[in-house]
Design brief:
The complex is a heterodimer. By secondary structure, chain A is mostly helical. In chain A, 80% of the residues lie in helices and 0% in strands. The chains are: A mainly alpha, B mainly alpha.
């Protein structure tokens, strides 16, 4: 994740106009924030251990995979806008 | 060979990919690539003795490799569609040729591991893998990273 943030920032710095004027870029960033919040929440639940049993695991996992696929799709489509 | 590439590029399917489907096919290719490399690196780092040491090697590889092969199938399918869309261009592209060579090397590394090194897995299934197994893991990480890098380079050099 650190490597992704570092190299991604470099790509923005290299061509700020191309990325920052791109709607798809902001869609991707919202999805990245969503995925990060979900990870932090699940990590907190896992640490507390109390509620982990009641978590709808399949739903959370599916949602998580869909968000990451969305991040990849948005990332790739930045080049086409 | 070049005539074949011209014919391939002239098919209706190739035309449809070139004009409409390319970005969508490319997105699928990248998602499949993430799953392919992700599952391979989990197995490779276990081979290197860096991660998942609480699981036996066989436990981990038996559960992950079906997903690796599924992702590989999708990668080959989507990659072939993209290749068709500009067959003559990819055929002559050095980055594309390098990628194919590296894919063959990754395949040979896998075959050697599977049929030679893996035979003695019982001795190290639960412990630290021997040098031969660690070398296979290291070669695999290196080769797949260069496969991805040269694949990305096709887009910059075409």
């Amino acid at each position: 994740m650190s490597l992704l943030l570092l190299t991604g920032s470099l790509l923005i710095v290299a061509e700020p106009y191309r990325t920052l004027n791109n709607l798809v870029f902001y869609v991707k960033m919202v999805l990245v924030i969503l995925a990060s919040l979900l990870t932090l929440r699940i990590a907190a639940l896992a640490r507390s251990r109390a509620e982990i049993v009641s978590l709808p695991r399949t739903t959370v996992a599916t949602l998580y995979m869909l968000i990451w696929c969305g991040i990849i799709i948005a990332g790739r489509l930045i080049a086409y806008r | 060979m070049f005539e074949f590439m011209q014919w391939l590029q002239g098919t209706a399917l190739a035309g449809a990919v070139a004009e409409v489907w390319f970005p969508r096919v490319e997105c699928l290719h990248v998602i499949a690539m993430a799953m392919l490399a992700g599952t391979i690196f989990i197995v490779d780092t276990r081979l290197l003795g860096l991660t998942s040491r609480e699981h036996s090697f066989r436990y981990l590889s038996e559960r992950l490799l079906p997903w690796t092969w599924a992702a590989f199938t999708v990668s080959v399918f989507t990659g072939s569609l993209m290749f068709m869309s500009n067959a003559t261009g990819y055929y002559g592209n050095s980055a594309f040729r390098l990628k194919m060579l590296l894919l063959v090397l990754a395949g040979l590394n896998m075959l050697y591991f599977q049929f030679v090194t893996f035979r003695g897995v019982a001795a190290w299934d639960h412990g630290h893998p021997p040098v031969r197994a660690r070398l296979a893991g290291l070669a695999s990480v290196g080769l797949w990273c260069t496969v991805i890098a040269s694949g990305r380079w096709i887009g910059f050099s075409l």
